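Entry:
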Amino acid sequence: MLGFKNKNFDDANIKNPPTDDSFPIINTLFENNNEINVNILSLTILDLINKDQIKSEIALDGSYDVGKKLTPEDMEVMKNITLRIANKGELKTSESLALKLLKTMNKNKKFNLKQMAKQSNNSSIANKFEKDFLELIKAFKNENDFDGKNYKDIMENGKFTHNGKEIKKDWSNFRDYLKSNDLTSRYPPESAEENSSQIIYAACFDIEKDALKLRENNTNITEFIDKDGYKLLNIIFNNALSNVTEKRKGDGIFYGINDKYTIPGGG
């Protein structure tokens, strides 16, 4: 983790992320109060789409928002969002495991979100998904030294230290920038790459659609977000975990499940 800087809203540095932590770490620490959930998988997938490791093909016009519960219309939207695993070049362990999870659910390198949603209702696939997800959590912790010295100075006994509160404040300022019309107008992203990165940072705080309204939809990842792709991924993965039937031995690994949405066909 890099050191933090105090932000001034009149300073162009407001648009720079306060630390160099990974997207899953930012979400876990500064949005979910140290609770690990499927967001770490969905954010890894967003990053892989942004890096062109996963190709996103969308056959839809206009923006789309998922409502308070899944509808037949949502399922048809998912049918028009296709992902294809490119898997080129060197990957981190967590990235390889994220791709493995997608293959586990889809048994193919190319699939649409509707197909994957239906698979998440299959208990045998859900059981395998959980096992792979636990491996992803282990890799996430190892790569970031999550339980080690990297974060001892900001989190102690599940609570932020003084230093941690200061860093969280900096991330709150950055979050405010991402969804502020005034600040984004004054300090807009200077490239398509920076624009995409800011949208993924916004997803860490569940404000990706708000941030996109203030920015150009000019890349594969912004188009995916425009169709509520991040939210759909989280719904599918939470549904898979809610359909797990096998009891596992105590391994000290815990995760949260948001079972607010039910995917038609089971679950």
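Residues 1-7 have pLDDT under 50 and may be disordered.
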